Amino acid sequence: MAKPKKKPTETSTDEASAGKNKTGLYIAGAVAAVVAIAGFIYFGSDSATRSRAADGNPGTAALMEPGPLKDIMIGDGDAPITIVEYASMTCGHCARFHNDVFPELKEKYIDTGKVQYVLREFPLDGLAVAAFMLARCAGDDRYYPMVGGMFETQKTWAVPGEDGKQKLSRIAKQAGFSQESFDKCLADQELFDKIVEVRKRGNEEYGVDSTPSFFVNGKRMKGIEIKDFDAAIEGSGGEKSPKD
């Protein structure tokens, strides 16, 4: 008999430093408006489907294969280092990274042409799905400003139940959404399905099971501090990332 699956949580403070992970994946609760999750959507971690990421290092070529949603990258497309992050908009450690660490990472490596960076959706709950949907609906040029703004204000809107949706609506309106465009975005079933698929693919193909999770040139990175990125980038040798 199969063992029961475990509920996932974001990486704890100690685990963020040690690079430990939680197992078992699900998305719970309602998203918003027409799009809703009844009960929960569960993703099991079947080791048979994760052969490419058995060692946690899928390699850049495999990691950068086109997925359900187009990657929105920042940085020089010819940069020798590619960093891929899997995050959840309601993950406190993800917010700390984006608020406290990412600005230095961007200044030191992205703005200097050494790194191209991409964020991929790995929502841990229905509200995180909704937040990512809004970021996608904002458009490619506004995706990262929208993500950054929501991480900066996370404590004001990332709360359980209907109150969370209402608070997220206020954040979206400050970013230029009307009530109509807000509702239309969250009613986009195709977008919802693709975000869920990005998460599922990250788990099954690349072994992602906690947030935030980072890959530097296809190798899983431990930790979330700038010193951890320094070490991972130096360890990569700065070799050019394989292209499709």
Give the overall average pLDDT.
82
The rounded Rg comes to 17 Å
Q: What percent of residues adopt helix (DSSP H or I)?
A: 40-55%
Give me the side-by-side strand order of the main sheet: 3-5-4-6-7
Number of domains: 1
Q: N-to-C SSE series?
A: HEEHEEHEHHHHHHEEH
Please report the number of helical segments. Answer: 10
| The first-level CATH class name | Alpha Beta
Structure write-up:
The protein is α+β, with helices and mostly antiparallel strands and 244 residues long. The chain has a single domain (13-236), classed as Glutaredoxin. The chain has helices spanning 13-18, 60-63, 92-110, 126-137, 140-152, 154-157, 162-174, 179-186, 189-206, 226-236, and strands at 25-28, 40-43, 73-75, 81-87, 115-121, 213-216, 219-221. Strands 3-5-4-6-7 form a five-stranded mixed sheet. A two-stranded antiparallel ribbon has the order 1-2. Helix 4 packs antiparallel against helix 5 (140-152), helix 4 packs parallel to helix 7 and helix 4 (126-137) crosses helix 9.
Give the key terms.
244 residues, alpha+beta, Glutaredoxin, five-stranded mixed sheet, globular, disordered N terminus
